[in-house]
Amino acid sequence: MVLSTRYQWLLNRLKSMSIREILYRAVKQIETGREIRAFRRGIFPPVPPPVMQPTKCWITVPDGLSDKERYAAAANRIIKGSLRIFQLDVDADAVILNWNRDPKTRTAAPMTFGKTIDCHDRALVGDIKYLWEPNRHLHLPLLAQAYRLSGKGVYLKALKLHLSTWLAQCPYPAGPNWSSSLELAVRLINWSVVWQLIGRADSVLFEGDDGVRLRDRWLSSVYRHMAFISGHFSRHSSANNHLIGEAAGLFIGSNTWPYWGKVTGRWRRTGFGILADEAVRQVHPDGAGKEQAMAYQQFVLDFLILSLISAKAAGVSFPPAYSESIERRLAFVAAMMDVAGNLPMIGDADDGYVVNLSQEPDFCPYQSQLATGAVLFTRSDFFRKARRIDDKTRWLTGAFAETAMSLPSKALDTKRAFPEGGYFILGRNFETADEIRCIVDCGPLGYLSIAAHGHADALALYLSVGGAEFLIDPGTFSYHGGDLWRAYFRGTAAHNTVRIDGADQSLSGGKFMWLKKANARAATFEIAPDRDVFEGSHDGYRRLSDPVMHRRKVVFDKERDILSVEDILECAADHVVERFWHFHEDCKVVLNGGSIVAERNGVRIHLTTHPPDTRLSLYRGDEVPPRGWVSRRYEERVPAVTAAAENRISQTTSLRTDIHIQVQGKVADREGRDRTESEAP
């Protein structure tokens, strides 16, 4: 069964490739064969001796941090042996004893040639996400920050222990930490932060014979990292956020350690060129990322922003289109964010971050990027959405961070249509305590032929009232937590849209692959003083034996606060139709006759379905099949109510859902705390 599943995946993967890609991968396999033979003989190209030279830092030790003691407290927890990996508290001492072991399953990966390790084989490597996460070294900058802020050698000593054990246990090119260029790139960026904060080549960490040996071993590994990335970029159908991340790691690495002459210069130009091209290629003109995943919008933005800041420090200028692509991405995030800072969890999310530079308890990565964007692009509207200058922004922009707070006030962008990305915003009183915001998703499934991080969510909608989320996207949960859960959270039933005959809108070919994709198209979007109207369709169910076309019309009546959703199913035979509505986990939801009533923080919505013979059901925390869940963090899910409205149709049919919104004077902030309207932002 395992073999047949593996072969089916390989067949599906081949179907997703062009002839050009197949030839490219065949050539890479030949190259890998040569590398394997060299690995077995222990013959590798030597690392040239570095020629040290002055460099400028792109990380700044800032004034005005919210609480410097938080860095020491968090670093002390690491020193005492506590490390948080996703939703798991692990023994940091156990991690540094074996960097090649998954701390979740305690499976030790083989130290064979890294590029040939099957990192999706749980029996071989455990849960690769849990193995890779500590090896990204996201926690090492924290130790460096604590050292720089306090001057205490205990943090430098801890850094030395983590670095030296990693270098000893992870020799090039053996083991799982030499299998993915993206993982190397993220690690390299975090090493760059550490290198700068501890004083670069002149750090006291490198004093004495032991210190010199550590520096030499570290620089040798840095060289190997950059050489590896430059030879193993994600290309063709895999050229998504991975390619941008890999180029960012190579570019930032070559700016931080330009110690190998022409070789470093070549790597810098390569990384620069890929970043300049892909920053524009992977974003729609309206600013939505082409992967159709909000979390990956954040992930990619960090790579692009850090590369821009690194370039400025190195005296390198990106073309204007590069910076413009970042600004467009940020403007899209700002427009999609409700008054309390919530964003719909569209597409995949794995809690992936490039760097962790803030220890603020209420840190929001999206608002942080808007704050950084406010500084970089002098955008007061971004600052209004961010609400404050966070600590991460201070580390990245230094004294310039304060300029955002003194920018002339500018009205927030009211853009509500993102036709290329496929998002349309209906509602009223935006950016006030009385805001009603409905977002309709009518975009592409995802990016490139496999659409790896897209969900089967065409024509889904999301609703928040005064910053309190009601109708939500339940999120992702896990990539490797079981096929059943992966299929559910990315499937149609986990979104506020229509499912036909129990099938997803798009046909999956694997955990990160879609074979047959629903094509969504927006037909109408009208904004008027009294109402907003959206109309769109998708053809995902045209593949059925009796083809079905799904059309959805959404009308928001601004005077009566009624959201009407009409679903038209064009068909000629019998079908089972399910309309799903996923409620925020804090909503109290009950069936009341032929209606569903949901309450949260003084806001109530009545959801009424038509025709009257619709079968209504509520689910909460069901395991088999999965129904009634929300996942706001990777590997964490909590029960939440899902409403299902089921009808059996035999020909073209119109189904309607009316959502009556009643606001009773209270709203919620991003953490869900009750506030009166006078306290709202």
TrEMBL record:
State the organism of origin. Answer: Desulfococcus multivorans DSM 2059
Q: Ribonucleoprotein: present as a keyword of the record?
A: no
Keyword vocabulary terms for this entry: Lyase, Periplasm, Signal
A GO molecular-function annotation: lyase activity
Task: Please report the name of this protein according to its UniProt entry.
Answer: Heparinase II/III family protein
Q: Which GO terms describe its cellular component?
A: periplasmic space
Q: Which InterPro entries match?
A: Chondroitin_lyas, Hepar_II_III_C, Hepar_II_III_N
Determine the domain of life of the protein's source. Answer: Bacteria
Give a Pfam family name. Hepar_II_III_C
Residues annotated as domain Heparinase II/III-like C-terminal? 416-635
Q: Which residues form the Heparin-sulfate lyase N-terminal domain?
A: 110-351
Location in the cell: Periplasm
